[in-house]
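Please decode residue identities from the backbone states below.
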């Protein structure tokens, strides 16, 4: 039975789509059957997938894009889990009924957060929602800049709010944007770059949490 993970946060611009696409590539390249579901109205993950088809060809993406339908999603996901090892959901940047449905369908909710005061304040209500729905959540510090004092201060603020924080951090690097724009992930380029190692470390940490 496959595992459903959602990348979710009511704060827009947190990097949900970039992390979703890179995890999908990582696990697909590792031989797993991976599906992605784009529940965000902006459809950024769908656009990335179209670029991937253009780069690799229609039948060589290694990933399957599935449609999100809120009306029967909780039933639909039961069948999807029988066909894939991992289902990655890119959630809408809001707190709506769709957000609740996605949280309920997930084995674990991962919450990308940029370590800034504005992002932290906007994220805490979403963490409360996940807790209310009795699901486990883990914050992923994303687009981390080399400002250790600010990152440490924001980490302490999240912990004070009761958040669990992944050990793996994703730093701000141009290669993430460059590969995303052509439908690729950083591990498509190679596995030894700093960005690839960060994605691999994050993917391994997620696997430990969901199994």
């Amino acid at each position: 039975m496959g595992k459903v993970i959602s990348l979710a946060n009511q704060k827009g611009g947190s990097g949900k789509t970039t992390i979703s696409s890179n995890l999908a590539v990582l696990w697909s390249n590792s031989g797993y059957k991976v599906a992605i579901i784009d529940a965000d109205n902006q459809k950024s993950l769908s656009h990335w997938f179209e670029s991937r088809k253009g780069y690799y060809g229609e039948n060589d993406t290694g990933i399957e894009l599935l449609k999100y339908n809120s009306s029967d999603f909780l039933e639909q996901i039961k069948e999807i889990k029988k066909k894939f090892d991992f289902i990655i959901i890119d959630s809408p940047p809001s707190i709506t009924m769709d957000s609740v449905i996605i949280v309920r369908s997930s084995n674990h909710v991962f919450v990308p957060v940029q370590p800034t005061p504005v992002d932290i304040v906007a994220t805490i209500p979403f963490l409360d929602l996940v807790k209310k729905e009795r699901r486990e959540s883990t914050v992923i510090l994303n687009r981390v800049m080399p400002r250790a004092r600010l990152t440490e201060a924001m980490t302490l603020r999240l912990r004070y709010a009761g958040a669990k924080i992944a050990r793996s951090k994703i730093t701000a690097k141009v290669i993430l944007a460059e590969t995303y724009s052509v439908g690729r992930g950083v591990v498509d380029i190679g596995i030894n770059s700093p960005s690839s190692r960060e994605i691999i470390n994050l993917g391994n940490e997620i696997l430990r949490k969901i199994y």
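Observation: The chain has one domain: 3-210.
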